[in-house]
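Dear H.,

Thanks for agreeing to be a second pair of eyes. The structure we're designing against is below in token form, covering all 315 positions.
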């Protein structure tokens, strides 16, 4: 029979289980973090747009009266106040001919405004444009709306530019915080998973390996403590039963071999002294030798019966 020793390679079972749990945590935390970021982004964007349209509609009411009466002081004050909280960057109202009649912006200087100098002033319906920076991120929303009455008559046009850069910075900070939480959670999860796996799986498996090594060396006295009712507990119980049965089997073999040695020794001793004795003693020796041979035959049958209890692979 070839003596083959196979040394397994690769990572330990506890490491692979810990890695599996960690990957699961990474996937779950990544999905949750991404979902939270997308939800916040969509919510902030929707709130910004809804608030922007609300300001446009409010401005339209004041602007319609101002254009009708040709009095724009109150309208200019309204547009200037819109910028007080920093949400509105710039606002402008045009008359029906496309001429600016009120403006609220940096220094209230319409001529220096890049967007409103290039914006399409006359719109036949409400229009929303997202303005992006060089990184393709939305930094502002431009709202445009006709100023009309209930009959649909157009008096002028309202253009409002609202700031989205603060929200963008908040979203970036939120993303950064989520990444930090993600990394910390993964590290803590790895430590906890490693501890739980080593305690729940690693230690019982190590004890089973040590007991198995003792059995392979012929020591059947090792027993595993069965303190759990899961798969590892049932495995430990099965090992104890196997060790007991192997112990009983090898004790039987040991007893049979002892009898075989005693009987064969008696036959050898009688055979060696057979010629040195008289005929009456020789008859007694022959009876003992015959009896010992029959006993050896019975022992041989017992060994065959014991051998049939083993199942091995053909080599």
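And this is the sequence the design step returned. I haven't edited it by hand at all.
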């Amino acid at each position: 029979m070839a003596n083959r020793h196979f040394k397994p390679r690769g990572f330990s079972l506890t490491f692979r289980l810990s890695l599996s749990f960690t990957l699961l945590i990474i996937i779950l935390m990544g999905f949750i973090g991404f979902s939270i970021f997308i939800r916040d982004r969509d919510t902030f964007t929707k709130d910004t747009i809804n608030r922007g349209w609300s300001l446009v509609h409010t401005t339209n009411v004041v602007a319609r009266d101002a254009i009708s009466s040709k009095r724009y002081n109150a309208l200019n004050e309204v547009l200037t106040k819109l910028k007080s909280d920093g949400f509105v960057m710039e606002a402008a109202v045009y008359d029906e001919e496309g001429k600016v009649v009120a403006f609220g912006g940096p220094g209230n200087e319409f001529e220096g405004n890049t967007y409103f100098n290039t914006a399409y002033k006359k719109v036949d319906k409400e229009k929303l444009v997202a303005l992006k920076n060089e990184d393709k991120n939305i930094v502002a929303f431009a709202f445009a709306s006709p100023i009309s009455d209930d009959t649909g008559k157009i008096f002028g046009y309202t253009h409002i530019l609202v700031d989205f850069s603060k929200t963008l910075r908040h979203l970036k900070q939120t993303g950064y915080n989520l990444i930090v939480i993600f990394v910390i959670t993964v590290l803590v999860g790895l430590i906890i998973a490693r501890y739980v796996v080593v305690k729940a799986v690693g230690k019982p498996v190590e004890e089973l390996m040590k007991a198995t090594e003792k059995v392979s060396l012929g020591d059947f006295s090792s027993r595993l403590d069965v303190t759990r009712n899961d798969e590892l507990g049932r495995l430990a119980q099965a090992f104890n039963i196997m060790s007991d049965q192997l112990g009983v089997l090898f004790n039987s073999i040991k007893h049979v071999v002892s009898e075989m040695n005693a009987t064969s020794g008696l036959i050898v001793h009688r055979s060696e002294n057979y010629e040195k004795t008289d005929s009456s003693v020789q008859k007694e020796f022959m009876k003992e030798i015959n009896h010992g041979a029959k006993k050896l035959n019975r022992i041989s049958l017992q060994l065959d019966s014991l051998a049939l209890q083993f199942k091995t692979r053909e080599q």
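Two observations from my side: Strands lie at 88-95, 100-104, 127-132, 138-148, 154-163. Residues 13-69 form the longest helix (57 residues).

Warmly,
E.
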